Amino acid sequence: MSKSSGTDLFERLTLWVAKSLEKRPSICDVHLSHLPPAQRHQLVTWEQRNSCLLPDDLKHFYLTSDGLLLRWSVKLDENSMPVGGMEINSITDVKKLAGEKPSTTSNNGLEMIDYDSEEEDNVCDHPHFDQRSCVYELDPCDGHGKVCLVYKNTKPGTAAAHKPEVWFLDRALRWHFLAPTFTHYFRLMLMHLGLPQWQYVFTDIGLTPQAKQWFNMYAPERAIVSGELGIDLDSHTTGPIPTIKLDAAKVFKNKTERKVKSGTQQSQKRRLASAAKPLSGHPGSRSAVSTSSAKLR
Question: What pLDDT shows up at residue 177?
């Protein structure tokens, strides 16, 4: 596969979000890194090392591009300020964040948070930091949290073969459900254009005032106040998960299209106004012909 065809394939995979961002007012320095595909033996090695089977949609993504990195800035006066970004770790950087048996020699000690809780022998709806779950980091989120691939209800010594989910871990070490599959999460990420802290839309914390301003500017249809999502946040883990459908033509509608539509509407209005004007005085109008005939008589 040539480099140009690979780039085109990657742009289609991301629904041309980079080109859409470039056409939005004041956005500049849009950089979408096209990474080479991962090798199949890398995916097999990861699965063997972690005793987990990667979901098919995530495998297909890595076989197309070994990760994702998109950054964009906003031009303020004569300076550009980094604002948005999308990132998915390469397969070698998908490290285990939690899922070990507690020990005094643990590197991060996260498994000590909820170990030996009353729910140990029960099926849990949220991820755990101990061996009841296997948690892998997909996106470091620029330090304001972590997007994780979570295998829940795992058992020591057995492969986590069931389908993992995508969860968000905030800085207070609380879990928030994002999507049932990687494909759903990928669509969510594109819909939110990589705006700062967009994952907090799906938490009870909500967006910061500054993040809300960016949402109002570039994704007003997604600027939803926390708790008013139109879906029950608690129903993510207790009820059916709503299917997320992406209308790319609507979500990524650029300003050029709006200008063309606006220009077309103005042209139609001018034509209607012209058609509504009285025809008297026009050289080719019926009243002008009548006046000329009267003068000849």
Answer: 95
Residue 187 CA from chain centroid, whole number: 5
* 189 closest CA partner among 65, 97, 96, 69: 69
CATH H superfamily, domain 3-269: SMI1/KNR4-like (3.40.1580.10)
Question: pLDDT higher for 166 or 271?
Answer: 166
pLDDT at 257 over 80: no
Domain ranges of the chain: 3-269
CA distance 207 to 215: 9
Lowest mean pLDDT across 35-44, 74-83, 108-117, 127-136: 108-117
Cα gap 291→11, rounded to integer Å = 66
Angle made by CA atoms 199, 202, 205, in degrees to the nearest 5: 90
* Helix segments in the chain, DSSP class H: 3-13, 17-22, 40-50, 56-64, 182-191, 209-218, 235-238, 248-251, 255-276, 286-296
- Please give the angle made by the CA atoms of 75, 76 and 77, to the nearest 5 degrees: 115
Residues paired with 70 in a beta bridge: 32, 86
Beta bridge partners of 177: 167
**DSSP output for 182-248:** HHHHHHHHHHTTT-TTGGGGGSSS---HHHHHHHHHH-GGG---TT-SSS-TTHHHHSPPPP----H
* Chain segment 210-221, per-residue pLDDT in tens: 999 999 889 887
**With contact defined as beta carbons under 8 Å apart, do 110 and 135 qualify?**
no
Task: Please compute, for residue 190, the number of CA atoms within 13 A of its CA located in the half-sphere on the CB side.
Answer: 27
